[in-house]
Design a protein that fits this description.
alpha+beta; eight-stranded antiparallel barrel
Length: 297
C-alpha cells in the first residue's frame, strides 16, 4: 500500500513543475507531502458470513447388467393371456331369498314330459301313398305270403290287411316277359307294365286271337326280341310303354301264378321269376309301386 502512495505523490510533484529527479535517484520519503489521513471508518469486526456453495450432486448411473441372450433357432411369440378374475357381487338375501334363487335356477320336469321311445319305420318308396299303421289284422296272409308280410312292417302298412275271412289265395294263369328296362305280366285279363324305376301301370288286355296280328313285323336289334300277341299289341299302341320298357330280352313264358288280394294291392307268386311281386296300388288301382321280394307261396 505504501508504494502506491509514493507513486501518486511523485506524479503530483511532476505536475507542479518540480525539477525532475536526477536519473537513477529514487525519491526519498522527505520529498513526499505529508498525507493527512481522512476519516476512514475502521473496519469492524463483524464478519460477513461466507456462503459455502453446496456442491451439486451429479447422479451416478448404476450400470445394469445386460443378460446375454442366445437366440434359439425359431422364436415363436405365443401370447399369454392372463385371465381377469370377474367378481360377481353376491346379493345379500335372507333364507327365503336363497330359496327363491334356487327355485328359479332349477327346472323340474314332470315325469310325463319325457317323450316315449320312437320306433323308426323305413320310408316307403317315392310315389307310394303312406297309410297309418294298420291295426292287427283278423287273419294273417295264407301260405308263404304270411312270413313275407310279417317280416316287413312297411309292406304291411302299404298293403293293408288281406281280404277274406279267412283269406284264401287264388290261382291264375300268367304270362311273363322281361324287357330292357322292366317286365310285362299278364294275369288272366289285366297286363301290368313293370318299369325299372319301381312304378307299374295296369292296362286291359285287348288282344283278340285270330283278329289281331300276333306280331308287328318289326326287326329287333341283335340279342333282343319284339313282343308278340297281347304284350306286342300294347307295346305298339302305347308309346310310353314302348319307350319305358324298350325291347324284350327274351320271349314270354307262362305258368300258374298264386295271388292274394289285400286292401290296397296284391302279392303275386310267379314261378317264372322264382319270387313274389308286391303290387301296391294308388287310388283307383290303375297304377302304383312294385317290388320283388324273395320267397314263394
Amino acid at each position: 500500500m505504501r508504494w502506491l502512495l509514493t507513486f501518486i505523490a511523485a506524479g503530483a510533484l511532476a505536475a507542479c513543475g518540480a525539477p525532475p529527479a536526477p536519473e537513477g535517484a529514487l525519491p526519498t520519503l522527505a520529498q513526499l507531502p505529508t498525507l493527512t489521513p481522512s476519516d476512514t471508518p475502521a473496519p469492524t469486526d463483524t464478519a460477513i458470513p461466507t456462503l459455502t456453495p453446496t456442491p451439486s450432486l451429479t447422479p451416478t448411473s448404476t450400470p445394469t447388467p445386460t443378460a446375454s441372450v442366445t437366440p434359439s433357432a425359431t422364436i415363436t411369440d405365443t401370447p399369454t393371456h392372463t385371465p381377469t378374475a370377474t367378481v360377481t357381487p353376491t346379493p345379500r338375501v335372507g333364507a327365503l331369498g336363497l330359496l327363491a334363487l334356487l327355485a328359479a335356477q332349477a327346472t323340474v320336469l314332470p315325469p310325463t314330459y319325457l317323450p316315449p321311445p320312437v320306433t323308426l319305420t323305413p320310408a316307403p318308396p317315392p310315389g307310394v301313398p303312406t297309410q297309418p299303421p294298420a291295426a292287427a289284422c283278423p287273419y294273417p296272409p295264407p301260405g308263404g305270403f304270411g312270413p313275407i308280410y310279417a317280416a316287413d312292417p312297411s309292406l304291411a302298412a302299404q298293403l293293408g290287411c288281406p281280404l277274406g275271412a279267412p283269406p284264401a289265395a287264388t290261382s291264375s294263369a300268367s304270362a311273363y316277359q322281361p324287357f330292357e328296362r322292366g317286365a310285362m305280366v299278364w294275369l288272366s285279363g289285366p297286363i301290368y307294365a313293370l318299369f325299372s324305376g319301381g312304378r307299374f301301370q295296369r292296362y286291359d288286355d285287348t288282344f283278340v286271337p285270330g283278329v289281331d296280328p300276333d306280331s308287328g313285323g318289326e326287326i329287333a336289334p341283335p340279342g333282343l326280341v319284339e313282343p308278340v300277341r297281347g304284350f306286342g299289341k300294347l307295346w305298339r299302341s302305347a308309346p310310353d310303354v314302348r319307350a319305358g320298357l324298350g325291347w324284350g330280352l327274351a320271349g314270354e313264358s307262362g305258368a300258374q301264378a298264386t295271388l292274394q288280394r289285400f286292401e290296397r294291392g296284391w302279392l303275386v307268386y310267379l314261378p317264372q321269376r322264382g319270387d313274389v311281386l308286391a303290387l301296391v296300388e294308388d287310388a283307383g288301382g290303375q297304377a302304383g309301386m312294385w317290388r320283388a321280394l324273395p320267397g314263394a307261396f
